[in-house]
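Worked example

This section walks through a single chain of length 358. The input is the sequence exactly as stored; nothing has been trimmed or padded.
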Amino acid sequence: MLHHFKKYILFSFLFSFTFLFYDCKSDKPATTNTIKTEVPKGMIWVEGKTFLQGAKASDTYAMPREKPAHQVTVDGFYIDVTEVTNAQFKAFVAATNYVTVAERKIDWKKMKTQVPAGTPKPHDSILQPGSLIFNKNVTAVVNMNNYTQWWTWKIGANWRHPHGPGSSIEGKDNYPVVHVALEDALAYCKWANRRLPTEAEWEAAAQGNQTDAIFTWGNDFSILNANANTWQGVFPTKNESKDGFEFIAEVKSYPPNSIGLYDMLGNVWELTSDLFNVNYYKQLDTTSPILNPKGAAKSYSPSNPYQLEHVMKGGSFLCHDSYCASFRISAKMGVAIDSGSDHMGFRTVVTPTMLESK
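Given that input, the structure is written out below as tokens.
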């Protein structure tokens, strides 16, 4: 949330910002896939597997940060059937009185250490708690690199009020919770005895019973609209809603993948525990087996050099083949640890060891 606010401020005042290796290997073999505990409610077991992580050879939308593809092995784990919902997050907040990043007062002294020196302080009327929301009223775009044309900083936008003051999640218990930053997701995980998936675990789950597919249903792009909530029409000015939803959708509105997981592609981006580094795959040592990788040792993105970013996966209802095309298993983007928006959420994982220790 704050990261996007910083960039929004920088654009407004400086007209200067641009568009939004550690190979953690184990010398131990992958553990058994035998389920030794009762399946937690709302979760599914993902068998330990070896699969092709990263861009597939036939994927014409693949970006350099998704290459080269490489074989990885992950141990078995449980993962949420859907993204964490408003109802689930509401229960967490009720039990802990947790206040999300988007609801907290903005500390300019802290923020100015994360932007270029000399950045002027915004007026106090602007420097208020809020988050980014998609501008549904944009009718024309001059430059596609200027995403402030379709994103709006909305004071008062947060998980309870996804479109700002006056909006609510009443009647939307089964929608993905949004406007959550990494810190918020980690707090939920601690309460629930869960953790965020690694990028490798996320891709293993998205593949389901497959090992080298582009999409969760296979390689057929033509059935995208029937399987994922994405943008149809002209982005970002006209959404034809051919898939039945103009923007965010209730969870389980589309068919699950081959192991019963819903919305791994489209609807909302999903946070992972991995740091985002555009060079990570290029620096991997693929001469020996890669077991349970945990991602890069440090974050690196040339477009956001001041920020610590994590990997988010799966794309969202705003993804379109003319712009982001992130409705693919290998697709990834970086998101700053204090950022949230109305198209980003998360799902959690847990291992038998975590359940046994609990």
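What to look for: Confidence is low (pLDDT under 50) at residues 1-32.
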